[in-house]
Write a structure and sequence with these properties.
Glycinamide Ribonucleotide Synthetase, Chain A, domain 4, 447 residues, Dna Ligase, domain 1, 21 strands, eight-stranded antiparallel β-sheet, 3 domains, globular
């Protein structure tokens, strides 16, 4: 098969490497010049993806375009109309993710309960609103081009910290356009995501559950990073999926969505509260999920495009993924030279079975040596699989401990919150089976 990856920063680089290892032809367009060295000498980068369209067309049904972002949906729709096989999303998906109030409205229209949200384009007006209606809020910028560290989850019940943040942002905002953001009612509970692949007509199975760890430091301290690590499983998603993401199938079908989609939620005794969509491959979600894949990405993508089957084989149990970073992560706009050219060593030999669990990101091969590249400091993801969360954790951290890079850092508590409290609470709420660490699940027959 032939694959043409199109994105900004080679976020699917390790997926491309897996496709290459399976014998497929892969070429990659990286739009951000600062990321041209990401996976340098490990994947083939091209300068003009449009010039490669005839190469994809020659492959017929075996030629696939893979889009990494959630800001090129209209282009994907156009390419589909021209007869290309495109996986990634669509214009409707872009809006679901980037226009947060639109996404919330779509959730409500699909029959989900949503938290109170209000959209603003002026920091002073938002601060005044908080003063008039004190409460705990979550501040989220619209659009996909802002660092996750700019978003903020309020801590004060009267909203004083949110109001202070808004006034500070009013003084320091340097964006080329007026700000666009929402203030959302804060919700307490278990944060859990549900995700699946949609083939243009319906969802494929199995569906996944994920428990992300978004803050920089262990114990959920520090700034929001996007994701420092995640616990995932392809089992027991049925109750959450059917109450939330599954209800989006008619709208996704109507807009020709083809790709992965995830819905993040808070669940508590008052119900399920959907928060936000991810309408693209998740990073590092795709890498962590692949630790549970029995079949290759090529099989999954072929079935998505040609709709020959709705299932793909996955392992039972859990996978844990740990994001390994160096400075300046997570502040990608500050001193990118800090993350370039650091040697990547391994304390002991990485065994062949372990190699599939090391997902390279901002590295390149230079004179036979792996060194860090790019400008963010997002080096790689170490994953582990196990029939219990603890075994998955042990395997992931055993592998992560083999990596030696100057100033390397990662969280040491991925999955612990689930073990200590989240699983029991979700079982009590009827969203996970009670009394079993590895229940069979709705899609166990597909394994």
């Amino acid at each position: 098969m032939r694959f043409l990856g199109i994105g900004d920063d080679n976020s699917l680089g390790d997926l491309y490497r897996q496709l290459m290892a399976a014998g497929h032809e892969v070429k990659v367009f990286v739009g951000n010049a600062a990321c041209h060295d990401v996976l340098g000498n490990l994947v083939e980068r091209i300068d003009d993806w449009r010039a490669m369209l005839p190469w994809i067309r020659e492959a017929g049904g075996d030629g696939i375009l893979l889009f990494e972002t959630a800001h090129a949906g209209a282009l994907q729709d156009e390419l589909r109309r021209e007869g290309y096989n495109v996986i990634g999303g669509c214009a409707y998906g872009d809006r679901l993710e980037n226009d947060r109030l639109f996404g919330q409205t779509a959730m409500r229209d699909a029959g989900m309960q949503i938290a109170a949200s209000r959209e603003f384009d002026d920091f002073a007006a938002a601060a005044a609103f908080v003063g008039q209606q004190p409460g705990r809020y979550v501040f989220k910028l619209n659009g996909g081009l802002h660092s996750s560290s700019l978003n903020y989850v309020g801590e004060m019940e009267d909203g004083r910290d949110i109001a202070a943040l808004l006034r500070q942002m009013q003084r320091t905002w340097r964006g080329p356009h007026r700000p666009s953001f929402i203030l959302m009612q804060h919700l307490s509970g278990v944060e859990v995501g549900v995700g699946a692949y949609f083939n243009g007509e319906c969802f494929m199975e199995p569906v996944c559950l994920d428990w992300e760890h978004k803050r920089f430091f262990p114990g959920d301290l520090g700034e929001l990073t996007g994701e420092m690590g995640t616990l995932v499983t392809y089992r027991d998603a049925g109750p959450l999926f059917e109450a939330t993401l599954g209800r989006m199938a008619p709208d996704l079908r109507a807009h020709g969505y083809v790709g992965y989609i995830n819905l993040n939620t808070i669940v508590n005794e008052e119900g399920i509260w959907p928060l936000e969509f991810t309408c693209r491959f998740g990073y590092p979600g795709y890498a962590i999920l692949s630790a549970l894949h029995i079949e290759g990405w090529d099989d999954l993508f072929h079935r998505m495009i040609h709709r020959t089957r709705l299932d793909f084989r996955t392992a039972p149990g859990y996978a844990v993924g740990i994001v390994l970073t160096v400075p300046p992560f997570p502040h990608q706009q500050d001193r990118p030279e800090l993350s370039r050219g650091l040697p990547v060593f391994f304390r002991t030999r990485v065994q062949p079975e372990e190699q599939r669990h090391l997902h390279l990101d901002e590295v390149m091969l230079q004179d036979g040596q792996l060194v860090t590249s790019g400008g963010i400091g997002y080096v790689m993801v170490a994953t582990g699989r196990g029939d219990t969360v603890q075994r998955a954790r042990d395997n992931a951290y055993r592998l992560a401990s083999k990596v030696a890079i100057p100033n390397l850092r990662y969280r040491t508590d991925i999955g612990l919150r689930f073990i200590k409290q989240d699983r029991a609470r979700m079982q009590k709420l009827g969203l996970l089976p009670a009394g079993s660490a590895v229940p069979a699940g709705r899609a166990a027959a597909l394994a």
